[in-house]
Every structure is written in structure tokens, then in C-alpha cells.
Design goal:
The chain has 433 residues and is α+β, with helices and mostly antiparallel strands. It is built from 9 helices and 28 strands.
Length: 433
């Protein structure tokens, strides 16, 4: 036993005498790629041992595609090619494509002008064929099948790792990102928009990007994308929540003692309990419902007494002076009794014309805009939370959408529709929430 202990001491001494391994950010350099718009309108990108040809297709409401392919142009007329630019048209729209070179990516700008006096649907796909792909990711997830799709604007990337490097495709402009479909089909990888409509006599611009690298890993592309968006920033601490229950709702001591700290989190915690809880959680953002509200009822915010909330905020600040205290806020569910009548201009409708809900009818879903009645009350609710209750900011739950992404009613957002995949005609209009 003594020999074993001695051996472990010697080994540990050797380990800790070595220099610590560390990782540091690499210097961001110009990627030595070459790019051109081919005579067919497709985009060719080369990076040392890798070559990618990205083709594109745009639907025509006659069940056919206008294509910028590897070796030909289909169903476009009056084509004009200049350096880094191509123009063409169909009976329904004009297309103008140009490219912009950035340090770590190529930005593609596709302008599509509706020539008609009516809405026209245009499905869009950008594809690259990679027969020797080692692995691929859609929307941030490793996909092991050779067929798959992702429709997630939060991570709208298609990323492929090859024998010689990696490539990533993603939308940049808002509408394209909201509509995005990332896909793989056999050895074809791409991004698309299957839900776009363009307003009469209006030009729509879709911006998207091609990232290429010699590195053969997912996060090499992701980190380049983060740098392009300038989205690396410091998060100053953890967030922690606790609830509006009081001491009478505490559970048995034997159950509590299983946890550290051994208290049931609630607004009646003592100063010492609060301090212990926040320290364990390394809390910087502290979140709870305004007392007297449940987070989904505007009338409660109007009528609740703000003093208990203010007292609790004061108590928290005594324990942790530098924290930010935030209320729970949600801008889609409204449970007040007269909500459907009061906010009838803001009811989120499903394709069958019924109101969307959060899994149960008691949680009906509405959509806020700057103009409708619901949006104006949601803005008032934020003002009440800051000015009346005294919070430092807002914890905004389900910021993008709740349960459903689209509203099938008026007003129309001017960009979205369900499109028949065979005829390429509009099935019904919808609006992104």
C-alpha cells in the first residue's frame, strides 16, 4: 500500500510539473479562396484542395424551375453576364445576382423583381454536390442519414465536412432566415426557401453566404460565422429563478435536506437563505413573476399592488447589490377573461381558421404588432414592469414565437405563403409570427 501511495505521489508530482495545455484564439486571416460566377450563373469556389460549385433554382408558377446549373441555364431569357454579376428574367420576375468577397466568406446577393400586378410565389434552393462528404450538420445537429431537413432560424446552417476541408451555407437576410430550410438529399446539400411570395411590382433581396475552410470540423465554420455576425459578446453571469410561493407551501424537512441549499425556493427566504442560494447559483440575473401576477394576464399587471414586488427587489439588492432583477414576460399567451373579444384583431389563426393555443384552450395565443390592440397592451405591460414594479429589465420568454410559427389570417406579412410543391402556385397566405 505504501509503495502504491508513493507511486501516486510521484506520478501526480510529474503531471503538475508539466506546462498546462491551453487554447487561445487564432489570428483571423484572409481565407485564400477563389470565387467566380460562372457563365451559367452558378458560383464556383476554390480553396487549395477543395472545389465547390453552388447551383441555384427558382420556381416559376407553371410547375417548372429557372436554373443556374453547373453547365447550363434553364428557363431564363435575356441573360447578361458581367464580372461578379448575372441578370436574367422569366415571364414573372427578373433576377440579378452579385457576389461580395469578405475575409472569411462569400456573400451572395440575389435581387428578384416581381413584374406582375399580383403576388407571385418563388421557391428558392441553393445546392452543392459533395460525393465524398465525411459528415454533415443541419441546424446545428449532426445528421447520420442521407436525407433530412431542418427549419430552424435560430441556427440556419448547412455545414459539410469533407476530406479536404469544410463548407457552410446559411441565409443572411431576415425573411430568408425565417423561412429557411436546410437539407441533405444523397450527396446534395443546401439551403432553401419554400414559402416566399413577392409583392406586386416589388424587388425582393435575399442575401446568403458561403463559408469555406481548410479545417475539417463543424465549429471552425460556426466560429467564422460568429465573427462575420460580430455575435461574440460577454454574458455577465448566470440566471436563476424562484417562485412566488410563501412559507406555508414549504415541503417536509426530510425532502428539503436532499438539496443544497436545504430550502424550498420562495419569496419568504431569509437574507441568509437568499445569500446562500444566489451564491450557489452564481446568480447575476434573478427572475421571478411580479407578485400578484402569473405572467399571462394583462389585467393582473394593471391591478396588482407593486409594493410587495418592490420590497422583494430591495431585499435581493441587499444580498446581491450588483444583480439585475427581471420579471417573467411572455408576449403571445393572454388568459384574461375578455381577451378574445378585446384582442380580436390579434388572434393567431391555424390553417383551419381556429385559434392557436399552447396545448390547452385556456392558453390562447395572440400575436403582437406595433399597430394592433394586443401589441399596444404588451408594450404597456413592459412599461408597467419597469416603472410600476421597479424591475431592472425584462426576461422575455419564447422571444421568437410560441407553439406556432405562422398565422393564417390578416394582416399578411407580405412575404409568406404555403406553396404547392408540384404547381408552384400559392395554396394559402400566412404570416410569420
Amino acid at each position: 500500500m505504501k509503495r502504491m501511495i508513493m507511486f501516486l505521489i510521484l506520478i501526480s508530482g510529474f503531471i503538475f510539473s508539466q506546462d498546462l495545455v491551453y487554447i487561445e484564439p487564432k489570428e483571423v486571416k484572409q481565407i485564400d479562396y477563389k470565387v467566380e460566377i460562372k457563365e451559367t450563373g452558378a458560383i464556383r469556389v476554390e480553396l487549395k484542395g477543395s472545389q465547390y460549385i453552388i447551383t441555384s433554382e427558382f420556381s416559376i408558377p407553371e410547375g417548372i424551375w429557372a436554373r443556374l446549373d453547373k453547365d447550363r441555364i434553364e428557363n431564363l431569357k435575356n441573360v447578361k453576364i458581367e464580372k461578379d454579376k448575372i441578370k436574367g428574367e422569366t415571364e414573372y420576375y427578373e433576377i440579378e445576382r452579385s457576389i461580395k468577397r469578405h475575409k472569411e466568406c462569400i456573400e451572395v446577393i440575389d435581387k428578384i423583381k416581381n413584374k406582375k400586378d399580383e403576388l407571385i410565389p418563388v421557391m428558392i434552393r441553393h445546392k452543392v454536390e459533395i460525393p465524398d462528404a465525411k459528415e454533415h450538420y443541419l441546424g446545428g445537429l449532426r445528421i447520420y442519414l442521407k436525407r433530412g431537413v431542418s427549419n430552424e432560424p435560430a441556427n440556419p446552417t448547412t455545414i459539410v465536412i469533407t476530406e479536404t476541408g469544410s463548407i457552410g451555407l446559411l441565409p443572411l437576410s431576415d425573411v430568408f432566415r425565417v423561412h429557411v430550410q436546410n437539407f441533405v438529399s444523397g450527396s446534395i446539400y443546401g439551403i432553401g426557401d419554400n414559402e416566399l411570395v413577392i409583392r406586386p411590382n416589388t424587388e425582393y433581396t435575399a442575401r446568403w453566404a458561403i463559408f469555406v475552410r481548410e479545417d475539417k470540423d463543424y465549429f471552425s465554420i460556426i466560429n467564422a460565422i460568429r465573427r462575420f455576425f460580430d455575435s461574440n459578446f460577454t454574458i455577465y453571469g448566470s440566471g436563476v429563478t424562484f417562485t412566488n410561493r410563501g412559507k406555508e407551501q414549504k415541503v417536509s424537512e426530510s425532502w428539503l435536506n436532499q438539496f443544497k441549499p436545504p430550502v424550498f425556493v420562495n419569496i419568504d427566504m431569509t437574507i441568509d437563505e437568499l445569500k446562500q442560494y444566489f451564491n450557489y447559483k452564481n446568480a447575476y440575473f434573478i427572475i421571478f413573476h411580479a407578485i400578484g401576477t402569473e405572467g399571462h394576464n394583462f389585467e393582473q399587471f394593471l391591478n396588482a399592488d407593486p409594493e410587495p414586488t418592490k420590497e422583494l427587489i430591495k431585499k435581493i439588492k441587499e444580498v446581491k447589490p450588483d444583480v439585475k432583477v427581471l420579471p417573467y414576460f411572455h408576449c403571445f399567451i393572454e388568459t384574461s377573461k375578455n381577451a378574445k373579444e378585446k384582442y380580436k384583431d390579434a388572434i393567431t389563426l391555424l390553417p383551419d381558421g381556429t385559434q392557436a393555443d399552447y396545448g390547452e384552450p385556456i392558453y390562447p395565443i395572440f400575436f403582437p404588432t406595433l399597430e394592433n390592440s394586443f401589441g399596444k397592451d404588451q408594450e404597456k405591460e413592459i412599461e408597467l414592469l419597469i416603472d410600476k414594479f421597479g424591475f431592472d429589465g425584462i426576461y422575455w420568454d419564447e422571444f421568437e414565437y410560441s407553439r406556432v410559427k405562422y398565422h393564417y389570417g390578416q394582416p399578411h406579412d407580405g412575404y409568406s405563403a404555403d406553396i404547392d410543391p408540384k404547381t408552384f402556385k400559392i395554396t394559402r397566405l400566412k404570416s410569420s409570427v
